[in-house]
Amino acid sequence: MMFNGFFILIGGFALSIVNFFKNLSFSGNEGIGGKIDSSILEKLNMDTETEHANYETRFDKVRDDLLRILLKRQVIVLLFIGLILITLLTSLEISGMYLILVVMCYIFLMQYPYIKDQRGYSDLNQELPYALRHMSIELKAGRGLHDALITIRNANYGSLSREFYRVLEEVKFGKSTEDALLEMSRRVKSEGLSRAVHQIVGTLRVGGNLAGSLEIIAKDISFDMQIKLKEFSQKLNSFILIYTFIAILAPVISLIMLMAGSTVMGDVISSELLFVIYVIFFPMVVMFMGLFIKKLEPKI
Q: What is the pTM for the complete model shown?
């Protein structure tokens, strides 16, 4: 009965959140239709945003509004009072679940911009060696640097093509090529891209064989990727044993021991605590280990 009331309360809270999001207005002027005139973007040589980009923009706005509400002192006090009431009316396990959910919600909302930025450039390091070789071939064929940048912009190199598009737009509206490339290097956290940009800037200032330099940098980046992937595979092989024990063996062994102990001594732990262990604790440990493995992936 206690869990039935708790899940009904959670369900009502979830429905309230859904209704809150459905009633939000994402457009500033609904009477005009809230759509962007694509002809204006064409005159500015910009592409019309895709539906996925519009969805992310809407989510960013919802996230900002929700975080602004949750950071208010009154809301924090209400959440703290809710924790006290749940602790007094239910059990420590339920209050612990409530506290974990609230803390995770705050952490996700505050760390989302960093997560989004990292995800936006996740493909850049993998595409960089191929793009540099492409630029080297274009330069060896007698084309200029700007023509090579336009070729990379029009090619399918993911976030790297988008960054080169931004560089060319900045150059088009008056910024020097060196400043645009250096700003891109500071904006994008990539050691390989930074090396390539500084090589291009140095060549623009003092001259040199840019095509050969870019090809050497591409080979170095590919070699570094191979070394880091080999190191990652070695770490992963040893980490698999720990993951297998915690994610598979530990829950099964714990359940067998609890069943054996309950047969001899009666209830060893309460059903609420057992529910928290197998529904909250073990899945969170598995998720944490998955995130840890993700962090171990090599990034150049």
A: 0.57
